[in-house]
């Protein structure tokens, strides 16, 4: 797997309204992602009061929550955060695939960018490394959100 991330664009996020939907399942890891997203938003000037955070039970519930937030038409971008770890059955594949397809569908149907911040790993170690370890995906998801919000504003 490539560890090369795109260079973050320099974006002033002071006007952006951002929604974040975070799963409670595997909460320690999701909190690590959330901290990274919030750090990127703060670094870009997005005021705390322009960031809404909602929680859902797990990654399977992310698409419907994101759809409800998109329907409010209050946000420039929505970030969905979750952590899925492979288990002894294929259930994790169903959750990961369903969440991914659902989030993509919401983005395409609503026209509001949705950042898929769901980490799926074959092991807990892979997930840990990406959520709270040496591969800081949360910050990357926040930077992606800023860039997509900027693109949406520019093209409207």
What does the secondary structure layout of this molecule look like, with pairings?
Elements lengths: L17 E6 L3 H17 L7 E6 L5 H10 L5 E9 L5 H20 L3 E8 L2 H8 L5 H19 L1
Parallel strand pairs: 1-2, 1-3, 3-4
- Main sheet properties: 4 strands, parallel
State the CATH topology: Rossmann fold
* The CATH C-level class name: Alpha Beta
Helix count from the secondary structure assignment: 5
End-to-end C-alpha gap: 35 Å
Q: Which geometry do the CA atoms define?
A: globular
Instruction: Quickly give the CATH architecture.
Output: 3-Layer(aba) Sandwich
Low-confidence stretches: none
Report the β-strand fraction as a percent range.
15-25%
- Give the proportion of residues in helices: 40-55%
Can you put this structure into words, describing what you see?
- With 156 residues, the chain is α/β, with parallel strands linked by helices.
- Helices cover 47% and strands 19% of the residues.
- The chain has a 4-stranded parallel beta sheet with strand order 2-1-3-4, with helices on both faces.
- Helix 1 runs parallel beside helix 4, helix 1 crosses helix 5 and helix 2 packs parallel to helix 3.
- It starts with 17 loop residues before the first strand and ends with a helix.
- The model has no long low-confidence stretch (mean pLDDT 94).
Question: What's this model, at a glance?
Answer:
This protein is an alpha/beta fold and about 160 residues long.
């Amino acid at each position: 797997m490539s560890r090369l991330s795109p260079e973050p664009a320099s974006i002033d996020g002071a006007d952006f309204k951002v929604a974040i939907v975070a799963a409670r399942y595997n909460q320690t890891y999701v909190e690590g992602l959330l901290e990274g997203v919030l750090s990127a938003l703060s670094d870009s000037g997005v005021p705390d009061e322009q960031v809404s955070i909602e929680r859902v039970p797990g990654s399977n519930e992310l698409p419907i929550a994101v759809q409800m937030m998109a329907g409010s038409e209050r946000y420039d971008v929505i970030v969905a955060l979750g952590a899925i770890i492979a288990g002894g059955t294929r259930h994790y594949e169903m959750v990961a695939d369903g969440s991914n397809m659902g989030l993509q569908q919401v983005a395409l149907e609503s026209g509001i960018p949705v950042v898929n911040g769901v980490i799926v790993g074959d092991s807990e170690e892979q997930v840990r490394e990406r959520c709270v370890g040496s591969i800081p995906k949360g910050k990357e998801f926040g930077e992606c959100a800023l860039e997509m919000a900027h693109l949406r504003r520019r093209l409207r």
